[in-house]
Here is the input.
Amino acid sequence: MRYVVLIALVSCADTSKLEARVHALEKQMSDLRASCSVQREGSALHGNMDTIRSNAFDTTKCVDISFAADTQFPETVAFDIGRTTLRGNDKIAIREVLGTRKDFAKDGIYLVRGDYTLTTADEAVLGLNVTGGCTSHTERGHVSIKKGSGKFELAVKVAYVGQPHVTFYVNGEGSGGVYFGKGDFLLK
Here is the structure.
């Protein structure tokens, strides 16, 4: 998909407001591309592409998954590693999952810690997502990274029964990742 942003000529006094608005719109587009990419990836595996197509650009149908910054994660959550779609020598290792619940469940909030190695791109976004529907406000669900290795800590609220995964996103497109979870929350 290609997006075209038209910017009208404005006076110099309006330039900073315009630049701020353009930056905000670019961030929204980036978040939407990542969300839609994840949804297409997940929906293709689960056969509900029509739902994703109808919801993909209607953000009024997205579920707000924001949560308080001071949320505590008192429970250690057991998990298995599922399908892995990493490219080249890229690596993602899930080391620990903590949550507001003992098991994966709708409306639970989960903190995931691990390690990554990115070799196939100079930079990427590392994102924690759950397949199953359109969501918004995932501030703690992604982090920008550079080529190399490092540790990550990501958190997300689960809005749907779906499969959690940590995925590399290069230029807004999924570039391989690791699914993890238990039962209905695990893509094998």
Summary: Residues 15-46 form the longest helix (32 residues). Residues 61 and 104 are 23 Å apart (CA to CA). The chain has one domain: 26-185.
